[in-house]
Batch of 4 targets.
Target 1
Amino acid sequence: MSEYDRLTAQDSSFLHLERLETPMHVGGLSVFEGAPFCDDDGRFRLADVRELVESRLHLVPRFRKRLMHVPGELGRPIWVDDDRFDISYHVRLTALPAPGTRQQLLTLTERVQAGMLDRSRPLWELWFVEGLEDGNVALIQKTHHALVDGVSAVDVATVLLDFSPEPTLLDAPPWTPQPAPSPEQLLVDSIVERVTEPAEIVRGFRRVLRGPRHALERASQLARSVATFVDRSALAPRTSLNRRVGRNRRLEPVRVSLDEVKTIRQRLGGTVNDVILAGVAGGLARLLESRDELEPGLTLKVMCPVSVRDESEQMQLGNRVSAMFVPLAVGEPDPVKRLEAARAATADLKEREQAVGAAFLSDLSEYAAPTLLGLAARLAHRQPFFNLVVTNVPGPQTPLYCMGGRMLEAYPIVPLTQNTGVVVGILSYCGQLHLGLFADRDTFADLGVLAAGIEDAFAELTKLASDRES
């Protein structure tokens, strides 16, 4: 039987989740110094950019692979080489009518991100944008969630970018696409694989649970972790954050000093993530107050993805993500108490290892039939467990370059689900937290209120930290 590069159950779930209203790609908006992208006549060096990207694709082989589905959905899809791969399809150039404003760039990004990727091709696109009023160049990125998670997306970006202004054109080995299996052969191999997997599962559990003491400790740990999902506070309150989403999007970028966040952490307590959650909670309080929904003691639930990728898995694509469901005390008017509540909540969930339980439940899905995975993914669209997603990915604190142009800003974009109208993607880069607030356009005409509220919440925490030092 042939060995296939098969999607994991978690990767496949993002295909099942995808609808016209809910594209399942992660994305980003970056801004670079523009001059190095242009030749002596001021024309964008598109051919050079494509040559640079193509010279590095052997480092991320799946970027030249497309999906192939098993007939009858009797197995998870596989990745196969795209024999019609065309770099010009994936690396594109567009322009704003000069001088392009910041708002016009955001509007273009919203429209690009709202469309689904073509599943008949490798699932990624890079859109370079010229014509910005300050002479800079923007990059709009789209990569399907089935291909990467947030952490591996940063790894890929690091490969495609440089740590010095001198771009490196790698001596790439020749690439010859391998032929895909016939649908009939793939069907037979998938059925055989499905039938033989249970024996491997049994052997795997025997290894994990070898010895009664180890088995008891492991069972106790998992029971404690999984229990965090089924206690009385598991369900999220229903608010206007969780209305059914449409096909259009809105993006608001926010920047916060990482040094200020670290100062807040040092003087008021908690971790950097706790401070971030407290700042987001302050912004949510402002938003709900403007909507007449803020009540004393209101606690929202935030889903925080947690990477379970170890060092041996760096630069491997696919998803290695678990989650924690963190309560946010948005109804608490005191910002320090909001921070203390976030710190206590995350400490409790870490102590009970909620992310371990989530990873365990996710791993069980590896052995579910693809039709059941599709059903589970559709149910996840109407999940009642969290109000929004906040994902924080650490990025490099040294400058990155593309074609010699320094990257000045980088805002992550996280996909919405059917009843999750807003997400907050966060990337730390060069001493700044770059927050990408991404929302359904129709239900978040007031997304700017959330953005301003988050900025003010961090400013207030910074002042309180300064006062405490004094």
Target 2
Amino acid sequence: MVEYEYRVLSFERGMSRSDIRRALSAEAEYGQWELHRTRVYLGGRMRTWLRRRIIRVPRPDRVA
């Protein structure tokens, strides 16, 4: 089963689209996040959910 961790970013009404795009691009490039959901609320506030896959490394069996 695939597991994800999530991060929520909020942007105020006054932010320009280029500033929002720059912030999301930086998260995607350097933090390996992908866009999951975006929601625009009344009043212009925008909330964006980012996600990335959690990779679990199995522990090796110990040989005694």
Target 3
Amino acid sequence: MKQIFEALKKLLREVRREKHSIRSVLLEGVFWRLLIIEAIILIWSMIDLWINEEPTVGELLRYGLRLGILSTLVLAFIVITLGGFLAKRIIDPMEKIAAANRQLKDKEQTAMEIPISKEAPKEIREIIASRTHMLRSIFQVSDERLKMVQFLRDTFGRYYSDKILDEILDAKEPQKLGGKRETLTMLMSDIRGFTTLSQSLPPEELVKLLNRYLGEMTQIILHYDGIIDEFIGDAILAFFGMNENEADHASRAAACAIAMQNALVKLTQELENEGFPPIEMGIGINTGSVIIGNIGSPARMKFGIVGAAINATARIESNTIGGQILIGQSTYDLIQDQARTEFKYALHAKGMKEPIEIYSLVGIGGDAPLNLHRRTGPAATIEFPVPFDYWEVREKEIIGNPRSGQAKWANSQAFRVSIDETLPPMSNLRIRFKQAFKQHAFEDIYAKVIFESSEGSPSVPILRITAMSPRDRQFMNRLLDSATSQGMASSEAPTENTEN
């Protein structure tokens, strides 16, 4: 008797603890219905006894008590035995299904199989079998989708940055043309004198060199959380600040540019040891409002950026010399507390109504300060009394007729010359020497005016070499190395002014 009551109490505790579960619904339904039936039988039996046999009140109460005890025992027995039967055949299998579904919700694929007793009803076994088949199909499709997404990431990740891929692959709707306006910081880099370089190398070697260069620069841009919009030959266009919460996009772009220039110094040394000509890079940075989104046509589109700020970035970059980083006023305003610059000047660029104020960036502070490393060559400066013709270069086009000048001194990076006209700073020139120097005939050399002094009249500018054939550079380096070793370096070596 005691065991029956203990089992009944345990059953009732489980029913109360798991309200609205299949266990509580079934057992409560059985218990209350049996209780009502036994109450009806008890009351009917006492009424029948009262009418037919006319017992005394005491006899009626004793009869009712005996019948009540018997009914309670019968109720307890039925509930316990039926509860166990239902639990084994129906409740336990259904609870296992529910538990497995909860595991699936937590992304545990191990819950696909549900072990149940063979005594479970056929319908429940069919539910489990259908569920298993359905889940296998879903997981197969899901695995295939994940493999496809990973394949797309592995394949197109070589062409697009992770952020752009996330924007495309995670989209809940098909990609449409259009975009949104955001303020971003653009970075554009370009190898100086790439045309000359490409003419001096076989195509296979040029591609090998270019891939090493782009691979090195790509890793640095991604390290600073930049997004590469595209490679344009040897040029890179990247942007920073795609997400609205990236308030440090200007400082990251500046640090990235310095890291790129410093990495190129090391890469160039490695390439020269392997027999490749040295390469130099100019970088322009600008901050402005652009449209970012899908550009093109419904048949073929590209996720990228458009806007006047990109054109300004290109103009700034085109005025750089090798190893230099120029930043626009809008970028400088955002990082002026951290930036270290050499000089500032106004750039009158084609297509721009107003001149662009630009700064030469040489370092940036912050949590991880960086300084720009200079690529060093032979230290000597030699006499170089060679006359030359020169043409002005605008937008990569040769302008006007040749004019004459006279070189005076030269080092590994620049010429000091005498010219009969005043050239504005940052002018691009093509130089063609009229005669050989020490029996060496030079090819065309490209240079930029970076300094203008006033040593009487006419003015004497410094022309910074931006492109020189590998053969000419090797010849100059041999001369300069010889001058250094023999102590022939001139005391009148030209110096680059840091302010314009």
Target 4
Amino acid sequence: MFEKRKGGKINILVQMLSMLMVFAIIVAIIFSLPSFRKSGGRIRAESIENTIMKYAVQCYASEGSYPPNLEYLVDNYGLMLDEKNYFYYYKAFASNFMPDISVYSRMRVGRN
């Protein structure tokens, strides 16, 4: 009634290895997600820095001086800042020198 199949142990071994590989892939994906978020946050922060620089250059081109602070760009040029998710550093040395602009993500390790 029941026939013994040849290679039965091999089939079981192949199935177990397949399940182990799927499990390993899932674990690798789960552990890599936080690093993707961190790098994505840094890329986004650099994009925001570049946008702020463009606004500052636009101000310099139209007024002949760089803005004294970020609030000036918000009030006069329509710059929108996401202060909930980012820290902004803006240091204007003189009105004819490009200001030092840095943006940092507020995302903390272990927090979404």
